[in-house]
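Possible regression after last week's pipeline update?

I re-ran a chain I had predicted before the update to compare outputs. Posting the input and the new output here so someone can diff against the archived version. Not blocking, just want to make sure nothing changed silently.
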Amino acid sequence: MCQLLGMNCNVPTDICFSFAGFRARGGLTDHHRDGWGIAFFEGAGVRVFLDPSPSADSPVAELVKHYPIHSLNVIAHIRKATQGVVGLENTHPFQRELWGRYWIFAHNGNLKGFAPRLSGRFQPVGNTDSELAFCCILDRLAQRFPQGTQDTAELHAALRELALEVGSLGEFNFLLSDGKRLFAHCSSRLCYIVRKAPFPVAHLADEDVTVDFNQVTTPSDRVAVIATTPLTDNEAWTQIPPGNLFAFHDGERVDMAETRTVAQDYPRRDADCEQQFLAPATRSR
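New output (post-update):
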């Protein structure tokens, strides 16, 4: 599967340590060699780096590894292609504007027969199921909240509903952020850790690199890191139960008072849902 990495903080923070280990999974410690990308929110803007080459061999990744860009929200992705050719247009994360701010999305999984009806406002440029799913989510949000919403709980409920509908067609692990909050949906595998005082001395699982966060942080700093699998081998990471959408803000998980099982979260789809999301060829089966 593809690899996901996200970071949400209460103060602008660089992701150099986590990215050093994450980057190695793109062709060095794992077999994902079909491109990589990373997006940093900076105020109202987003700084995006994309490369269809393996991250372990990418000069752009080498730049990012040593470039301490400080951000409150970061999303990165290493691709193993399932749908769509290997190319820049199909490299995650994807970026779109909604309600006057940028949104960033990255997906891990394979949505079979996914063919939603879109209004036309959001259209994919490439030919991946991931970008199509992103356009679908934003399209539905724009229809449900024409003027936008600032309510995290309200937005979380709408995203959760969409995640369950789309996710019934296949693996749908994803990270999504509007620069204010970061949402992480797990359908099969995703975990996170919240680092805060007293900070640990952390060691990467994919690189022989250690950092003492007490030397590079203040006691009030708080950082949440989300990844497909743990990036360090000496810290306690929390697995997100499959079928759950977690929200992160100011470096910690926002409690939405829900943690459900796979059976609860993935009920059988009814005919109306199938007609909405499945391709014609699949509907006839």
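Follow-up from reviewer: compared with the archived run. The two ends are 27 Å apart (CA to CA). Marking as no regression found.
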